[in-house]
Write a structure and sequence with these properties.
about 130 residues, alpha/beta, Aminopeptidase, 5 strands, Acyl_CoA_acyltransferase, diamine N-acetyltransferase activity, GNAT_dom
Length: about 130
């Protein structure tokens, strides 16, 4: 499975500056996923556009917590937050075709979300180019 991350090669001063720049940024929201008070992952709403009322959602679960349904719960909570608190109409997600567990999880989530016709959750299957 490929991970889409950059290595953190920033100094503490650079990280502080980055934090100060983004502390009041309204285009992103991040939520921690915990299991028995232990960090298990992160759900993020990014590129929040309040004019067009859409955003992208992304999630990562630590490998030792995978297979416990935390991704489903985290995605559900993030999507509900986007629709009910941020008043968005569309949330989309990119899914790597080489991650069958994620594809299955998202298919199950989409089938549950189809009952809500006012809002749209749209997964987009993406192929990572190495």
């Amino acid at each position: 499975m490929a991970l889409w991350f950059e290595e953190p090669f920033n100094s503490l001063d650079e990280l502080k500056l980055l934090y100060d720049r983004h502390i009041l940024d309204q285009s992103e929201r991040r939520f921690v996923i915990e299991d028995d008070n232990e960090f298990a992952g992160v759900v993020e709403l990014i590129d929040i556009n309040t004019i067009h009322r859409h955003c992208e959602i992304q999630i990562i679960i630590d490998t030792k917590f995978q297979g416990r349904g935390l991704a489903q719960e985290g995605m559900h909570a993030g999507i509900e937050y986007g629709f009910s608190v941020l008043n968005l109409h569309k949330i989309y997600l990119f899914v790597d075709v080489q991650n069958p567990a994620a594809l299955t999880s998202i298919k199950n989530l989409v089938s549950k979300k189809k009952a809500d016709s006012n809002n749209t959750f749209t997964p987009r299957v993406a192929t990572m180019i190495h």
